[in-house]
Sequence to fold (108 residues):
Amino acid sequence: MKTPAWQRAAGKNPRGGLNAKGRASYKAETGGTLKAPVKGAPTTPEQLRRKGSFLARMGSMPGLLTDEQGDKTRLKLSLEAWGHRGDKASAVAKGRRLLERYKNQKER
Fold:
């Protein structure tokens, strides 16, 4: 039996994250829904929450941003797919700031 596309190279975007085929495969396999990354500045409260949560979560992941050859790891590529170019600590800090902005907007 063939593994789902989201677990193989066919479903992964070479620049980080999953491509449309990978997201569709994930939905078919698990019933969950995955949306494309929020690349630029978030414009809606939902985008603030999604980008903030992603950056805080992925910035806290174990592992290096580059491998032994100096190539970017999937972790670094996924952070870049969401528009973050810095290190993991700055990703966590930016994610928390975005979540704080979301919380403040929600309270209004």
Q: What stands out?
A: The chain has a mean pLDDT of 94. The chain has two domains: 1-36, 45-107. The chain has four helices and no strands.
